Amino acid sequence: MADQRRLQGKVALITGGGRGIGQAIARAYAAEGASLTLAARTDTELRSTAETIRSAFGSEVTTVITDVRDREQVENAVSHTLDRFGTIDVMVNNAGNTGEIGPLWKLDPERWANVISVHVLGTYYGCRAVIPGMLERGRGRIVNMAGVGGPNDTSYDAAKTAIINMTENLSVELAGTGVTVNAISPGSIHTRITVRKGRRSYVGGRRLD
What is this structure's pTM? Predict the structure, then answer.
């Protein structure tokens, strides 16, 4: 019987793929048959996640150390994926971080700007690197991660708002090409970022500590 998994034969590149939401996306894609490139800054987390996915799903998984603030490193992740698999069907711009929590005027400017750099520049570099190849093939899917912060979290909020607007504009620019781009907002998830923000996440009314 032919493999009926929905992503069989597809290739996905996921930034921030070593842990948290990126890891969960990678597992979900692998369960549907996709081959994966996981890109992140921490090699040990990448290797651990890749091995877990290979063992659980028998998937082809490759990893590449990538700081999404660096355009050349993002482009290298794309080249690495193309060299290994020959195509990129899905790009997930998931890498993220958080800065200080507090009133805007009391926050460290460098840490504030770093959040913008990771989220906004990282998403821009990822889109920019994969779109030409997707356009050439006449197909492709880009998923950008949106979200909300709240009071005293201006860097994260500004970054995610920029990603939403970037995605909206890009979707118009790509209309009719076979390449689509969407932003998703998963809500409050119990990951390292929410823990660092000192927030509690809830699932079904139950607090996750």
Answer: 0.88
